[in-house]
Amino acid sequence: MANLVFPQLTCGALAQYPIRKTRLARTIKNLLTDGNLLLNSDPYGSRLIWELEYVELSNSDLQAIQTHFANCVGPFHAFTFIDPTDNMLTSSADLTGAVWTVPPSVQLTAGRPDPLGGTEAFTLTNNGQAAQGFTQTLPVPASYQYCFSVYVRSEQGAAITLMASGTSANSSETFSAVTNWTRINISTHLNDPGQGISAGLTLAAGQQADIFGPQLEAQLAPSRYRPTLQQGGVYTKAHWATSSLPVIATAPGQFSTVFSIEASV
C-alpha cells in the first residue's frame, strides 16, 4: 500500500519518552578445515529497533495508531517511519552531497570553523542576482509538524531565510545573521495534504554567511544537533515488530500502549 506513514500525535510529536533504540549487527563466521575462523561483517544484516511507549493517549491519537497498524496488516506491509531521535536530513554534515539541491551560482566552501570547536562548517556565497541557497526534499507528509534549524554567522549581517514547503503550501522566515554563531529555526505545520516536504535556506544576492548543522525534525522545537551522512532519520521500509497491538485503558478517554518498530540499515 502506498504512502503508509507512521502517524504524528496531535501534540506535534512522534513519540513519548522513554525511547529505547537498539542497533543489531550480523557477523558471518566461516570455520575452515584447519580450525581457523574467518569473520566478516554483513553489510545487509544490520537493523534498528525502536521500543516505543505511550501513556495518556487520547481517543484520536490511539485511533490513528490503530488505523495505521491495521492498514499495514501488522508486520506485513512496510511503511515510512521518522526516527524521533535523529536528524531527518541526509548528509547534514556535507552540504555538497548529491541529496542537496544547490544552484550553480551558489558557492559552498568546506572546512570552516564551526560552533562546536571543529572545522565542519561551510561558507555559503551567493554569486547570483536573486536570493538563493540550498534545499533537500524528503518523502514524508507535508502536513506534519516540523522544525528546521541551522547554525549561522555572518560578518556582513547577511539576510538568511529559512523555508519549508510542500506541494501546495509553504512557510518561511527571514533572519539577520550576526558575527557570532546563532542557531535559528522555523517551526511549521503546513495545511498541505501532499506527500513530500522540502527544507532549506536562501541567502540574499551577493551576500556570504557561514552555515553549520542543518537539522529537520518532526516536532515543535529543535533538539541537540545530530550530524548525518549517508542515512538520515527517515526509513521508508520500516515494519511493525509485533503481530498485535496491546492497548490498556488507564482512565476515561486515556490509553497506553507499548510496541516496537524495526528497519534495515
Task: Spell out the blueprint of helices and strands.
Blueprint: E1 19-24, E2 27-31, E3 37-41, E4 47-57, H1 59-71, E5 79-82, E6 106-112, E7 121-126, E8 132-141, E9 145-153, E10 159-165, E11 170-176, E12 182-189, E13 195-203, E14 208-217, E15 234-240, E16 248-251, E17 254-264
Antiparallel strand pairs: 1-4, 2-3, 4-17, 5-15, 6-7, 7-14, 8-13, 9-12, 9-14, 10-11, 10-13, 15-17, 16-17
Protein architecture, described:
This protein is mainly β and 265 residues long. It contains 1 helix and 17 strands. The strands form 4 sheets. Strands 1, 4, 5, 15, 16 and 17 form a 6-stranded antiparallel sheet that branches. A hairpin with an 8-residue loop joins strand 6 and strand 7. It is globular and about 55 Å long. The two termini are 22 Å apart.
Keywords:
six-stranded antiparallel beta sheet, mainly beta, 5% helix, 265 residues
The number of helical runs is 1
Which radius of gyration do the C-alpha atoms yield? Answer: 21 Å
Number of strands: 17
Largest sheet: 6 strands, antiparallel
Q: Specify the overall morphology.
A: globular
Low-confidence stretches: none
Helix content: under 10%
Order of helices and strands: EEEEHEEEEEEEEEEEEE
- The percent range for strand residues is over 45%
- Supply the helix-strand structural class: mainly beta
Mean pLDDT: 94
Gap from first CA to last CA: 22 Å
